[in-house]
Write a structure and sequence with these properties.
By secondary structure, the protein is an alpha+beta fold. The protein is about 25% helix and about 25% strand. The strands form two sheets. The chain has a six-stranded antiparallel β-sheet. Strands 1-4 form a two-stranded antiparallel sheet.
Length: about 150
């Protein structure tokens, strides 16, 4: 049996639909790679950092978007945030298919949002949408696709 025949039978695809086979294999491969646990973010990785108050509900007081890490970040003590319902910390990023990890520090929570695959930078429009959601005031003429650092 050829490799094609084996894969065709494994993924239950008709012989004349080779494109479907490729799509199914790639979907499976993407799911497996997205399930891999990330324990560290490495220097040079593009991330979005969000600082939140420890109060309930938590309020964003600083953001650093489209930031390139200058050092490795250990995520072992960071929680996974995967709730995409409006109002939950990190939900905007979760809705955009970002991984969101959060850790409580002495006086604040710190979140890292990043992607495992796909585009990593936020566009100018994404940045303004996010700032609107979290209630940050900003000058739209000073927002571009580069790194953005804002504090309340």
């Amino acid at each position: 049996m050829s490799d094609f025949e084996y894969l065709r039978k494994r993924y239950n695809v008709d012989a004349h639909n080779a494109c479907d086979l490729v799509e199914r294999v790639l979907e499976k491969d993407q799911k497996v790679s997205s399930d891999v646990e990330i324990c560290s973010l490495y220097k040079g990785t593009c991330v979005h950092k969000v600082w939140l108050t420890k109060t309930k509900p938590a309020k964003v007081f600083q953001v650093q978007l489209n930031h390139t890490l200058t050092a490795n970040v250990d995520l072992v003590n960071y929680n996974y945030l995967d709730n995409d319902e409006y109002g939950y910390p990190g939900s905007w990023f979760v809705n955009k298919n970002f991984c969101v990890r959060s850790c409580k520090h002495q006086n604040y929570w710190l979140q890292y949002a990043f992607t495992k695959t796909g585009p990593v930078n936020l566009t100018r429009q994404d940045i303004m949408d996010y700032l609107d959601v979290i209630g940050f005031e900003y000058d739209p003429f000073k927002i571009d696709d580069d790194e953005v650092l804002l504090k309340i």
